[in-house]
Structure formats: C-alpha cells, structure tokens
Amino acid sequence: MAYRMHLMVCAGTGCVANRSLEFRDALEKEIGKRGLDSEIQVVTTGCNGFCGAGPLMVVQPDGIFYQQLTPKDIPHLVEEHFLKGRPVQKLMYIPPEKRTAIPKMMDIPFFSRQMLIALRNRGLIDPEKIEEYIARDGYTALAKALTEMTPEEILNEVKISGLRGRGGAGFPAGTKWEATRNAQGEPKYVICNGDEGDPGAFMDRSIVESDPHSVIEGMILGAKAIGARWGVVYIRNEYPLAVQRLQIALAQAREYGLLGDDILGTGYDFDISVSRGAGAFVCGEATALVAAVEGRLGEPRARPPRLAEKGVWGKPTCLNNVETWVNVPPIINRGGKWFASIGTERSKGTKVFSLVGKIKNTGLVEVPMGITLREIIYDIGGGIQGDKKFKAVQTGGPSGGCIPAQLIDLSVDFETLTEAGSMMGSGGMVVMDEETCMVDVARYFLTFTQDESCGKCTPCREGTKLMLDILTKITDGHGTMDDLEALQEVSKVVAEASLCGLGTSAPNPVLTTMRYFRDEYLAHIEAHKCPAHVCRQLNTYRIDPEICVQRGHGCGVCRRECPEKAIFGEKNQPHRIDASLCNKCGTCVDLCHFDAVIVE
Amino acid sequence: MPKLKLEDLAELREKARKAISLREGAARVKVTVHMGTCGIAAGSRKIVEAALREVEERDLRDVMVTTSGCAGLCSREPMVTVEAVGEAPVKYVDLTEAKIKAIFAEHVAEGRIVEQYALAIGSERTY
C-alpha cells in the first residue's frame, strides 16, 4: 500500500545536536503504536537551513512546517495531525511580530524568499539513499554529459554560466577549468575544498551532510571537462557527520558504477578519495590545502606557478569550493544561459549565506545575487533580535569587513561588497546590533586570524600579533592616537605584503571598522569609554539606590559575589559600589536580578 | 548490485521518483478523506486504506490522498472530497470500499464525476 504522508525529519548537525534523532526514534515508535506505519513514512533528511528553529519536521504532501520539536510533543501531534487530520498550531512557526502561526513552509518568509540551486535537495531526500538523489534528477547531468557532450562542450556550458568560485575569491570557474585542461601533465586532479574554516560558516557542511551526491556528480562533471583522473575531497575533521555521509555516498556511487572504472559504461575512469583536515584554518587556502593532502606541513607557497599548472604532486589541479561544484549539475542540465539569467551582470547565479548573530531567523539562506542586505536581514532574517537597532553586518568571515547600517540597501554581489571594503567570502553573514562594540569585533576576529597564522611569512606572523596587541590595548582603555595611526599603517602592510589570503585579508575587519566606525575608536582612546558598554574596563558601574531598595530590597547578592569586595550595604538598604576598588569585571551586572546596576 | 548502464539509470529514476513524489506536494487530484470522530466511527479508516490501495494498484503518480477533520454533514459519513486542479471540489457521501473504487476509476482517473454517489459540487461560503 502506498504511503499517504511523508514526515521529513531534519537530521542536519544543528538539529541532531538538538536531539532530532531521538525525536525521530520516538516518532517512529508512536506511529507504529498507532498502527499508522504502513501509511506514514518517516524520512530522515539533511539540513533544512532554518537551524535556529530546530528540531524541524516538514509534513508532506501538505507542506506543513513544524519547529522546535521535542519527544513530548509526539503523542499529541500523532493523534491530532496524523490520525485526525488537524495540524497542531502550537508547534508551527509563529513570526516574531504576529501571533498566528504560519502552517505552510512555502508561506514562511524565511523559506519563500529563497531560491534553491545549490541547496535544491535540502530537506527533501535522505542523504544516505542514492535512489532518492536519482529520483530528483540526480546523475542525469552526468549521463547527459558523458553521452551527449564533448569535454569542451561541458567546459563551455560552465563558461557561459558565468559561475564564479563560491569559496571566497570569486574566480571564474570556467577559466580555471580551462587553464587546468590546457596545462601539461598527467594525471590531472580535481579537488573539492571542504575545509570551511570561517567561524560561524556552515554552508559547506550543510551541503555535504544533506546532499553528498551533488558534490560527487559536480566533481565528475568537472573532471570530465578537464580530463582529470583523480579527485580529492578535503574536508575538515570537525565535520564527522559530513565525512560519514560522504563516505557512504562514495561507496554507493561506486557500487552503481557512477564512480570508478568505466563510469556508466562509457569508458571514463575517475575516482575520488577523502582527505581529512587537522584543525588549521590556513589549510583552507588552496596551496596549503594541497600541501596537507600530500602529507606535508600545511603552509601556503607563492604563486606562480598556479595550481592549474602545478598542484597535487606537481600535476595540474583544479581546486574549487563545495558550493561551486554542486552548482555544476544544474548548469549542465538546464544550460549555462539559464544560470546566467539569474543574478547580476558580473555575479551570476545564487549564493548560500549563513545568517547568524543578532538576527531572529538564524540559518542558511540561498538567494540570487543582487538581492539587497535589507531583504536578507529583514524579509528573510525577520529583523534584529529583541527589535534592537541594526548596527552592522560582517560579511565574508574573519577575512571580511563590517558593513554599516547606512549601507543596508547595498545589493549583494562580489563587486559591491568588495567596494564597500568587505568581501563575499564563503558566505558568512554576522548581524550586529547597537550592543556590539565594533572595536571589540575587530579584536575578536583578529584573535582568530592571529592564532591561525601559519608563521611562514613575516608580515602576517608579526603583523597580526602587533595589530592584536594594539587592539587589546585600546579595548583595555590604554590606547593612544599614535596607536591608531600605527594600526592603520600595519594593517596596510599586512594586507599588501602577506604571502597568502589569510594575511592579506586579516586586516579587513580592522580597516572597515576604522573606516565606518572611527568614532567608536576615538571614544575608546580619547574619552576612555566604550559606547556599547562591551569593553568592561572602560565602564563605570553604579547602583541605582531606588531600584536596589524598592525592587531588590537590598538583597546583597552583588556584595557577596564581588571579587574585590567593593560593594557596601545592608539588607533592605541601598547598596553602593566604591569606584576606587572596582575592577570593572561586571559580575554585579550579570548577577543582579533587578537591573539595579547601571552601566555608564 | 550490478553497475548501471544509461538505460538502467533512467529506469531507476522513474521507480525512485514514484516513491518520493508525495514530497513535492504537487498533484493533479487531491482526495481528502474526512476523518472527524463521526467519520472514524463510520469506518473512514477503511476508505483511506482502500484509496491508498487504488493509488498503488493504478500506479497513480499525481494523486494525493490526505485526511482532514469533520466536514460537517456527520449523518452521511464516510465522506470524501475529490478536488482536481482547476475544478471545483466534489463531495461524495455514504461511502463504502466498492464506491471509492468506482470513484477512482471514473473521477480520479478519467475526470468523470460519479453523480449517484455525489452530494454536491463546490465549496461552502466562509467569512
């Protein structure tokens, strides 16, 4: 008997961390208990993208979206919706400003505004079943390419599409493929960069976990166009679920003759191996990655020669990001012209962004290039948490820059973001509100890049440390105007003289915050104040005596916990802080239940 | 598992599509079996099972079988509403397994409303 309902339970890492597998097991049990297991199928899918609302489930064919599910919701849900046909409102998504739920997934703005190409299979297939990938037109592009197209024709389609690398640099994929194809040397390699080192970025993880076959198919297509014999997927070891699903997918593809010797009986030999990272951000850089694959120390090298000429084991190598590869099958199936019809003049297609930070709807969004920041942040993201004021958005990870609120109508594409001082990067978008200190943000990102600097070249090794020391000095309240000038100069040198992209882009957060938020730097240096009150050493704390007595009744919690014993007072009496003893740790603010400690 | 040839790939795709087509949410005909307490008491579960069997036996890829609550006319349960894309919904009443088979054969597959089992055509007015 056919199933009348499919329950698509999300099992991306985010939801799994929130116990979605436990939920799924309990759901299966309840459905069995109610005798519905021959009518209702429970399917485990990959990441749906709306990670802030997990664990998630979509009920098909109705298209009803349920969020924040726990096992104790199950008996009621099964009885009401699956048995009696009455969808359960309280488990649906309720938009922040409204009070009524939106039942259908396609009506929820987070989903309805997105355009899925790279993420075309998300939430719709079980990533561990190759048949489901095939059902959704998986490997049809491969069949078409291997039987109806020459390698030059495959390459040409990608050139027409205007696909640019999605890993950060945005280099035209077709040009890179052509260079590798024309280079001398055998065998040739294709590499998939799945290192995804940017903190807060999880686009590639989501793709590999939810749709590993799309990565494989994209790579085989590229390899055929280039004339490559071997492929390597370099994936960071911090993604165990992605590694596992990829390995299952590779085994299945080989079993079906879609990978390995004599693919689909066409005589083409190509196979892919998996290489796992070991925790270094710098290994996301192409030449350092190749070094790691070869078993050498993960340090970049100067270019030329480009990887297309001399890559893995000195052979021509084409390295592209996960997201770049998965765009290839649709381009072959629907044509390069179709892809080029989406996006802007110079940035074609869509891009996946990880929308995180002080935003209401946290998750992964895929949108056409050219969409404005305003649309992403407000229409899809639902606006700022707590309806606070939007201050800036950091794009492109730690190598990116901060774009201020006044540029919110900027259209998102490679060129405009670079002009504004930031970059597209791999797609991270960290939204910041009025309670963020931009100097602290610069310091935070520099802590990361400085730590990850491999040390090979002097500008990056010494320069990032120097920049970090100056920023720490400023946020501690000891900065001077000379420091600001030094910071600017060192930033420029590091950006110009570093050996690889880690160094050349590390100063971006500093340079953009100094360009757009100079007043905050001046406040820290000249007024010794942090406008957002984040840099605690620059705050003064005092207790409002009325609030302390009327609301808190002089409870004394702050007095007891103060590490410097700087607070004085009796029960039912207003407490006060002795500023000369206060070390600005902010413990009293964190502990006071009555908001009696005023921060200035 | 023997290695696939091109024709095998296409065949596998067709077979697999059927299994997951329900997820796309798009269908030519939607058959809603009313399962309010009245419906269940009158035996609508058997109607659902019969409907699903018809979908399977006739290999229907573009037909969605779903359930809903009570439609309001409890005395005539089991009831089913058949909605084809672009057509007004038709309510069938006093159903049995034999009648639902006939409805699938005539209305769902061929587009001919089975008048002797139908109550009404169209929707109620809601505010």
Shape of chain A: globular
Largest interface: A-B, 37 and 36 residues
Mean pLDDT of chain B: 86
Evaluate the radius of gyration of chain A: 27 Å
Unreliable runs of chain A: none
Biggest sheet layout of chain A: 5 strands, mixed
Q: How helix-rich are the residues of chain A, as a percent range? A: 25-40%
How many helices of chain A? 26
How far apart, in Å, are the first and last alpha carbons of chain B?
Answer: 58 Å
CATH topology grouping of the largest domain in chain A: Rossmann fold
Q: In the CATH classification, which architecture of the largest domain in chain A applies?
A: 3-Layer(aba) Sandwich
Beta-strand fraction estimate of chain B: 15-25%
SSE blueprint and pairings:
The complex is a heterodimer of chains A (600) and B (127).
Chain A lengths: L4 E6 L2 H5 L2 H14 L6 E6 L11 E4 L3 E3 L7 H10 L25 H4 L17 H6 L4 H9 L2 H11 L11 H10 L5 E7 L8 H8 L1 H15 L1 E8 L4 H16 L4 E4 L4 E9 L9 H8 L23 E5 H5 L1 H7 L1 H5 L9 E8 L5 E6 L4 H8 L9 E6 L5 E4 L9 H6 L8 E6 L4 H15 L5 H18 L5 H17 L3 H5 L2 H9 L1 H8 L15 E3 L1 H6 L6 H5 L5 E2 L7 E2 L9 H5 L5 E3 L1
Helix pairs in contact in A: 6-10, 6-14, 7-8, 7-10, 9-10, 9-11, 18-19, 18-22, 19-20, 20-22
Chain B lengths: L5 H15 L8 E6 L2 H6 L1 H14 L5 E6 L11 E5 L5 E3 L4 H14 L7 E4 L6
Parallel strand pairs in B: 1-2
Antiparallel strand pairs in B: 1-3, 3-4, 4-5
Helix pairs in contact in B: 3-4
Describe this structure in words.
The complex is a heterodimer of chains A (600) and B (127). The mean pLDDT of chain A is 93. In chain A, the strands form five sheets. In chain A, strands 7-8-6-5-9 form a five-stranded mixed beta sheet. In chain A, strands 11-10-14-12-13 form a five-stranded mixed beta sheet. Helices cover 39% and strands 15% of the residues of chain A. The longest helix of chain A is centred in the C-terminal third of the chain and has 18 residues, at 458-475. Chain A starts with a strand and ends with a strand. In chain A, helix 18 packs antiparallel against helix 22 and helix 19 (458-475) packs antiparallel against helix 20 (481-497). Chain A has 600 residues and is α/β, with parallel strands linked by helices. Chain A folds into five domains: 5-106, Glutaredoxin; 130-339, NADH-ubiquinone oxidoreductase 51kDa subunit (Rossmann fold, 3-Layer(aba) Sandwich), CATH 3.40.50.11540; 350-433, Roll (Ubiquitin-like (UB roll)), CATH 3.10.20; 438-525, de novo design (two linked rop proteins) (Up-down Bundle); 539-599, Alpha-Beta Plaits. Chain B is an alpha+beta fold and 127 residues long. Chain B has a single domain (24-121), classed as Glutaredoxin, CATH 3.40.30. Chain B is 39% helix and 19% strand. Chain B contains four helices and five strands. Chain B has helices at 6-20, 37-42, 44-57, 97-110, and strands at 29-34, 63-68, 80-84, 90-92, 118-121. Chain B has a five-stranded mixed beta sheet with strand order 2-1-3-4-5, covered by helices on one side. In chain B, helix 3 (44-57) crosses helix 4. Classes of the chains: A alpha/beta (600), B alpha+beta (127).
